[in-house]
Write a structure and sequence with these properties.
The structure is a homotetramer. Chain A has eight helices and 13 strands. Helices cover about 35% and strands about 30% of the residues of chain A. Chain A folds into two domains: about 80 residues, 2-Layer Sandwich (Alpha-Beta Plaits), CATH 3.30.70; about 200 residues, Rossmann fold, CATH 3.40.50.170. The two termini of chain A are about 20 Å apart. By secondary structure, chain A is of the alpha/beta class. Chains A and D meet through strand 11 and strand 13 of A and strand 11 and strand 13 of D. Chains A, B, C, D: InterPro entries: ACT-like_dom_sf, ACT_dom, Formyl-FH4-Hydrolase_C, Formyl_transf_N, Formyl_transf_N_sf, PurU, PurU_ACT. Chains A, B, C, D: Catalyzes the hydrolysis of 10-formyltetrahydrofolate (formyl-FH4) to formate and tetrahydrofolate (FH4).
Amino acid sequence: MRSYRLVGTCPDKVGIVARIAGFIAEQGGSIIGANQYEDTETRMFYMRYEVDAGSLDMDAEDFRAAFAPVARDLDMDWRLTESRRPQRVVLMVSKLDHCLADLLHLWRSGDIDFDPVCVISNHEDLRPLVEWHGVPYHCVQVPPDGEGKQAAFEETSRLIREAAPDTIVLARYMQILPPWLCAEYPNRIINIHHSFLPSFVGARPYHQAFQRGVKLTGATCHYVTEELDAGPIIEQDVIRIRHHDTVEDLVRLGKEVEKTVLARGLRYHLEDRVLVQGNKTVVFS
Amino acid sequence: MRSYRLVGTCPDKVGIVARIAGFIAEQGGSIIGANQYEDTETRMFYMRYEVDAGSLDMDAEDFRAAFAPVARDLDMDWRLTESRRPQRVVLMVSKLDHCLADLLHLWRSGDIDFDPVCVISNHEDLRPLVEWHGVPYHCVQVPPDGEGKQAAFEETSRLIREAAPDTIVLARYMQILPPWLCAEYPNRIINIHHSFLPSFVGARPYHQAFQRGVKLTGATCHYVTEELDAGPIIEQDVIRIRHHDTVEDLVRLGKEVEKTVLARGLRYHLEDRVLVQGNKTVVFS
Amino acid sequence: MRSYRLVGTCPDKVGIVARIAGFIAEQGGSIIGANQYEDTETRMFYMRYEVDAGSLDMDAEDFRAAFAPVARDLDMDWRLTESRRPQRVVLMVSKLDHCLADLLHLWRSGDIDFDPVCVISNHEDLRPLVEWHGVPYHCVQVPPDGEGKQAAFEETSRLIREAAPDTIVLARYMQILPPWLCAEYPNRIINIHHSFLPSFVGARPYHQAFQRGVKLTGATCHYVTEELDAGPIIEQDVIRIRHHDTVEDLVRLGKEVEKTVLARGLRYHLEDRVLVQGNKTVVFS
Amino acid sequence: MRSYRLVGTCPDKVGIVARIAGFIAEQGGSIIGANQYEDTETRMFYMRYEVDAGSLDMDAEDFRAAFAPVARDLDMDWRLTESRRPQRVVLMVSKLDHCLADLLHLWRSGDIDFDPVCVISNHEDLRPLVEWHGVPYHCVQVPPDGEGKQAAFEETSRLIREAAPDTIVLARYMQILPPWLCAEYPNRIINIHHSFLPSFVGARPYHQAFQRGVKLTGATCHYVTEELDAGPIIEQDVIRIRHHDTVEDLVRLGKEVEKTVLARGLRYHLEDRVLVQGNKTVVFS
């Protein structure tokens, strides 16, 4: 079913749902999914309405034009997206391909809906896999430091700009993006971190987890902000580990969680189910 | 926060949410929680609205009177409940007290809100525990069969009627209620079954699970209907078991899941989050 | 680390562990993993010893010859395998490729160790994927019934025999193998069933689960026996579903569990961690 | 079944299992459970053998005397305990009783085996509950600071000493024990911390979790050391939370995990399944 998704945030007050639902009903719109959340602490209102596109006499542009005055009245930060226009996604990866391979498989089998514009990597290793899927592959090697590194990220940035993505996914891209690059795509860069944040921020989280002797290891899907591993969390999960598990076992077990958590978080994001609320997220799952 | 919960089901059509939310807004009602579900297969609409009672000028009776014409228009099956009027609950139990003790503890600590009118058991064993909590205890022994059994259930039925419960909880009451008694309280009797239904219906499910060699054992909280262990499922969960676990271990591990699942399912029910849909449930958790 | 795995079952009695461990110590063997299980009900003993191959002066053949008299004394059913000789595995599949793609990816990335001799399918669909991985692909179409069907399974059987597999994996092969074919590979054919057995045996388990309104859906990895979906269970897991999930959602969510459960179960099997005990399994995980 | 548990750690070398199992066999001992773990990194060996006491001609004292020379040879740190001599346990608690009530219930119903010598609290609140269970209750109020605080902990220490416990359980005892008191009972004080450590160390972990916007909240059962919330972890688990959950919801959901994790961790400890390995634990579950 083709649908429109009306997603927005505004200060809470009496009558918002009536106003929104009233507007949709006036257009003859059939609601096929509705979520609201009233944050009683911040007095903010979050919503996601999914409307059967076939029940409306207008296209998305007209819908937007008609809704704009309502949104203005409500002081609402909003967007309207179309389910049939899959998001353009740039995937970034280093050498470990478990997340990338899983996303490409889910995409190809139709289990997750997006348009993989290209893959950018700092290594050549995964070119055959990606090109077999018919997806363009760009390799930009990132030198350890200095001018070369700056140049590499400028080239990366240029490639991203050309791809004009809605969303960028760091599917185990083992480089830290420079702040200026993060700042260009706020709440549009999604990272998978291989620990249960805020535990084990930074490098080698499985080694950290092994050292601490935790009994579960996890993964965290979050939006990238300028502060490392500190952005709004979209999704997390864990898996049980045992005393006889080595760091290598943790890595292996963790991969299972990483790919699941990233796929789940990305799906929420692509279906416009995630609204950022300060450094947290509202997820209408 | 004192609230009203408006819960209902009606045939789906354009404009229902607008109508409901519009009505609430007209009364000045501040919505603090809203859930809808549109079943595209059966074309039915399910909803739960929670409204800040302090934002309304009317009491529950007036609210009901005002809403009745709206509901009539929508052909809606509905109810309005008050968060501050906890449901009257009759708890039934045999000898195993893990579920009962957990519910009484949750009630006493304020973690789950209901009014435990009385406990009815077919044994005397749990009287001290129940009476320590200040809850009346009735023992009605149920003979294995025949007239005595019928009489016992009539006495049980009389005690229940006197207690005038909103909800009856079978917290490991090891007797099968007669159909006529089930029929008196449709969707108001909640049972905890000690397996992951529909696996292992009937007697001794842990023995059945042990024989089959499953790797997880579970528990199911469901509404009681005339057909044994076949009513609408409210909540389920499982716990991992290992080859070295004996039937006794399964019983012990299962208790942990049973009490959790029953408490969770009962909470959903008491907070009016469960709507029955044929032999299934909509749970606005 | 190269290792030998000594796996066996015998009637329980005093001194077995001493005998086994004594034998290993006499050869200078360094134990790197040891599991035992004494079933107090059947009075049977199950064991798995993993020995550092580098610590022994003998090769596997000599080890077997030396151990044979000990095993005879203990009336033990046993085998010795070498970690560095990965099992030969035939993968069978129909059209749904989530399990197959996951296994091939895990194999290629070294996360699970086996030798994928070939893939046999009753459709051509997955040939490109499989051949990209460099694995031979055989397509044997299976007519609905009658002589053609018999002939197809004879051809399938011939292909399997030629492949000389240690293990056959039905990675969503949507045909029921004939009993005579099952009987040729006892405890060596592994199936993934897309429900939490014994719930929803047979066809279309996700539809059955949807109809029953369960709150979790699952997957079961088990050895194939002549009775459909009734063989010894190796591994199971579940995932939570919600009232708004359609059958299609169940299928999608279920795929995530299916591939995880099959990969986990297959790993246990390939690492000689699974011992069949009647219609159950001992899993030294 | 009455059993002895032989638990120990020593440097790894060839022949340890043969030596231990050989010793047990010489006494005619029937092994009903055996776990070993060889840490390849530290080259240490950990073991737990459970022997049917009825199969031996000797009592525990004789067993210990006979085993001592073997242990000396192996340079083993060991102990032998008797399943029929439940550990003496002192329970400490403040006002929140969910963990305490659960443990007392499990104890009374025979689901966990220990001898609750007494409860020590810094408040009077839980006296009725504890005394109803027939367990002595001591209240030692702990002033915020200074000499009074020191005196309170000396009195607490005196009460503990009198109780002569094997194990002390901090079942939500909201005071930090002074280092000198921790040092008296190494690896014998068990705490339940209401977060998934190492996330949210210290005070008000649920508030910290709420602020960070995590999607799972957890609990950690660990041995108390002089460094706050940094001791060896015995057991952990998590529960899913949603954006609409308030801090109060987190507290409520967390209680469910806390009591489960503490009961599970304590059971492992009481059954001598936990061996401390530096700042980590080996858990033979």
